[in-house]
Amino acid sequence: MFSKDGNSKDVKTPRICDVVWHNGEFIKWNDARVHVMSHVLHYGSSVFEGIRCYSTKRGPAVFRLREHIQRFLNSAKIYRMDHEWTLDQLCDASVEIARRGEMDQCYIRPILFRSLDEEHPAFGVNPFPNPLACYIGSWDWGKYLGDEAIENGVDVCVSSWNRMTPNSLPAMAKSGANYMNSQLIKMEAIMNGFSEGIALDDRGYVSEGSGENIFMVSGDTVLTPPLSSSILPGITRDSVIQICEQLGISIKERTIQRAALYLADELFFSGTAAEVTPIRSVDHIKVGAGGRGPITKRIQQTFFEITKGERQAPGPWLTYINEQKQDTSDNNGFSAEAEPVMTFQTASLD
Ligand SMILES: Cc1ncc(COP(=O)(O)O)c(C=O)c1O
Predict the structure, then answer these.
(1) Which of 213, 229, 277, 343 to mutate to test the pocket of ligand 1 (most atoms within 8 A of CB)?
(2) SS3 330
(3) Residues 227-250: what's their mean pLDDT?
C-alpha cells in the first residue's frame, strides 16, 4: 500500500461518525476543536486508545473493550492525569459512540489530553495548571497495512531509529509523544519503499513495529519480545498469546536478536489497526518461503473467527453494542463486570 510517495496515501476511511463524545456529552464532529496554544500541541501531553468494533451476526461488537479502557486508565495514571472518568463510564461512552455511528464496524479512538484554560492560560512545560479534556471519536477504518497484506504479507525493514528506553518515554503508556518515535520509524520505512519498520530497543534487541507488536515462529514455537524490550503491552499481542495457548501452540516471551528475524520461519505483526499481518521479508531477506506461513495462518484465522463472533474466545472478548453486555458465554467464570483480563499487562512472562 505504501510506496515512496506514500505520504499522499493513507488507510481507507470510508466513514466518520458525525458526533464526538466530550467530557460526558455528545457534540457535533465540527465542534470538536481545541485552542492552538493547548499544552498537548506543544508538549505531546496526550494518552489515547485504538479499539476496533467488528461486524458480527449479532450486530457490531467491540473487541476487548475493557482491556483497552484499562490500558487507557493506566496510561493516564503513569502521566499523573488526574481525571474523573471510571472504567465503566468510558466503556459505556465507547459503546454509545459506536452505536451513534450506525456503522457495521468501526474504530474507536478515546483520547485524554492537557488542553488550555483560556481564562487562566499556562504555557510552560509543567502540565499541572492545564485542564484535562477527554474525547472519543469513531470512524470506519480499512486494513492498516493494505488490503492485500493480510494474505500476502508485507515487506519491512529494521529501522535505524531505536525504540525509547524505559526510563525516557515509557512504551508501556500509549501516549501521543511516543508516536513521534513511531513517525520516525514509519517515515524512514516508507521513504525506503517498505510498508513498515521494526525498531530495536536500546540494547539492540527486537522491540516492535511503529504501530504493532511482532511475533516470530521458529520451528513449532512462537516467540515474542517481552515488555522489557520497550514494547506497548498490545491487546492483540495478548490475544495472540491466549489464542496460541488455546490452540496448543508453544508460545514464549523471549528477547530476540535482529539476525534471528532473518532466520525466522515465519514473522507477523499484531495490532488493533494491523490485526494479524504476516511479514514476508525483512531488509529484502525473505522470511521462510516468503509469504504467510502455516502457523501465522492458523493464528490469523482463529483471530478473525473470534472477532467475527464465529468462534469461542478464551475470555469475554466481545461487547455486542446492541445488547450492551460483554459476551460472558465462556466457561472461565468471568462476569460482564469482571476486571479486564490481560495475561501480561505490566510484567513479562518470565
Ligand atoms: C507502538 C505500538 N505497539 C503495539 C501496538 C499494538 O497494540 P494493540 O494490539 O493493543 O493495538 C500498537 C497499536 O496500538 C502500537 O502503536
Answers:
(1) 213
(2) coil
(3) 98
